[in-house]
Amino acid sequence: MQLDKPAVFIVGVGEKSHYRLLNLFHCAELIVEDFETAEAFLDSDCWKKPGCVLLELSLPEADGLALQRQLHAANSRVPVIMLVDPDDIVNAVQALKQGAVDVLEKTVGEQAVLNSVFRAVSQAVFFWEKEKQIESARRRLSSLTLREKQILDLVLRGTLNKVIAYELEISMKTVEVHRHNMMEKLSAKNLVELINLVATAGGREIYCLQPRGAATLGSPIPLSILTPATSC
To answer: Strand 102-105 vs strand 80-84: parallel, antiparallel, or unpaired?
Structure first.
């Protein structure tokens, strides 16, 4: 399977439907991975990749509902489509309660199967890309030095450079250098991009240096720092 390409993971589907589904997905140019049992699927680590799971309620050595619970316990975001017998309403409802994106009767038409799979794959790709954005943002934030994190925190509070210099007891020039390096490491061109990156990473708590609501660094700021100098 191509890395990071969305796929359909067929798990434990009976022989009667198996080849029909394989042919259907190949004709639709979908990448397909086939597993006889839930254990084989879990051991493959495919549930950590983008795609959707198409499985039968009655699996060899297990059942589809149990696999759903295992995926949920492992924090997997892979969407699940459950195949059930036409009269199995109780388990169909239970599958939906456990987070299945769709429940299909085994006798459902091919177009209905494709529609469901394409919706599930689109959802998987959306969450996969979102997770990658979060990981990227957090990785960039973790690359900052302690001083750069202090300056980032103050910048996000709307603090002026000269106030940052006073708070951290460093020169304005040093603040500007650290701020430039911080923006370079975070690949942020302006304050809006900086705010969006921190929000994507999960907010201020990701790099937080002190509890929310705690006093800011240093002593009270003299008014002379905030007031522009005037000439006579």
So the answer is: parallel
Task: Give the pTM.
Answer: 0.66
172-202 tens-digit pLDDT: 999 999 999 999 999 999 999 999 999 998 8
Best CATH choice for the domain 144-201 from the list 3.30.70.100, 1.10.10.10, 3.30.565.10, 2.60.120.200: 1.10.10.10
Residue 49 DSSP code: S
User: How do residues 73-104 score in pLDDT, each as one tens digit?
Assistant: 888 889 999 998 888 888 889 999 998 999 99
Give the C-alpha separation, 61 to 37, whole Å.
7
146-156 vs 191-201: helix crossing angle, rounded to 10: 110
CATH architecture for the domain at 7-135: 3-Layer(aba) Sandwich (3.40)
